[in-house]
Amino acid sequence: MQQQACPQCQRQLALNAAYLPWCECGWNIKPHSLPESYGMFEQIYTNVSKRLGKQMLHQMRSLNDLQPRMALITRELLGYEAQVMQRLRSQWIKQ
Fold first, then answer.
1. Greatest C-alpha distance within the chain
2. What ranges make up the beta strands (E) of the chain?
3. SS3 sequence, the chain?
4. Mean pLDDT for all residues in the chain
5. What's the pTM?
6. For the residues 52-65, what does the mean pLDDT come to?
7. Separation of alpha carbons 47 and 94, rounded Å
8. pLDDT tops 90 at residue 30
9. Residues 6+ apart with CB under 8 A from 21
10. How far is C-alpha 70 from the chain's CA centre?
11. pLDDT tens digit string along 7-23?
12. Is the pLDDT of residue 34 over 60?
């Protein structure tokens, strides 16, 4: 894995091609700002994204219980599995 020294504090940073490098000292936390002249579609997309992000943050902060929950599909699969096992058991007992 490649490394880079932070230009502000000289701490060694691990580089990952999927992410922008940043440092705990604050370097490169907000590396790019939007250009002054971007199109109408980009403005709409940016505004909607910010609004949805704020709504999601508000929803997450208002939750009292952040424990993982069983997904609906998992419950359905477990119910289906229980039905199959019950039918197999009843067929096995008949034999």
1. 78
2. 3-5, 12-14
3. CCEEECCCCCCEEECCCCCCCCCCCCCCCCCCCCCCCCCHHHHHHHHHHHHHHHHHHHHHHHCCCCCCCCCHHHHHHHHHHHHHHHHHHHHHHHC
4. 82
5. 0.35
6. 85
7. 65
8. no
9. 4, 13, 15, 28
10. 17
11. 999 999 998 888 888 89
12. no
CA distance 95 to 91: 7
Tell me the one-letter amino acid at 11: R
Handedness of CA 44, 45, 50, 52 (dihedral sign): positive
Cβ atoms of 13 and 21 within 8 Å: the answer is yes
Model pLDDT, residue 6: 93
- Contact at 8 Å (CB) between 41 and 57? no
Of the candidates 34, 28, 33, 30, the one whose C-alpha atom is nearest the C-alpha of residue 9 is 28
